[in-house]
Amino acid sequence: KVLIDNLSDPLATILIIEFAGFLGELVDTMGALRNLGLDITRASLDTDGGGSQNCFYVTDSKTSEKITASERLEEIRNTVLSNMIQFHPEAEELIATGHKVSQISRSNKERDPLAPRKDPPIPTSIKVFAESSGHRSRLDIVTTDRAGLLVDIVTTLKDISVNVISAEIDTVGMMAHDILFLTYQGRALSPPMEELVRNALYYYLAFSEVETDESY
Questions:
Q1: How far apart are CA 48 and CA 111, in angstroms?
Q2: Residue range 57-83: mean pLDDT, rounded
Q3: CA 156, CA 159: separation in Å to the nearest integer?
Q4: Which of 4, 2, 1 is nearest to 179 (CA)?
Q5: What is the pTM of this model?
């Protein structure tokens, strides 16, 4: 399980990793993060092998600021997953499926929309609602994990002029659970805009499933 939390700490991005906590694996993970140009300001490590949470507080080594760009967050997540595969080859098929399924492209390759296809491993669920403060809206997406998923979700939202304030990424095996906080023209989304966001994302994710059907 890989969780990126950009909400709990104002100064750092929190990377939470849950898998067998052997010291060598964690040292290797820290090295991989530093190779991405990240500073680990502090960490909470559990090395008893029980699979407890291991938290890394990371910042950009050049700016000393938390990581907010969706492309960088996706790069961090994929790096950690690759590291997990290296030390847990028995889990490679499960973890890597997200990458195989997820080679998404917005190509115009013709497909028969009526042709039979397999159901995706994780049914897509999209919820949009305004927070009690009324200043922003929350978007909850559960879907099949794939490389570049967060980047493409953000791109789809930008296409309809919706601003992404922050994002939290949770990945468990083939399932991605992304939480994004949104505004439209500086305010929470109106009901018509909420419906537009749902429709745009459902269309994009369904289209991507058709594009990658052969990967299943």
A1: 50
A2: 86
A3: 5
A4: 4
A5: 0.51
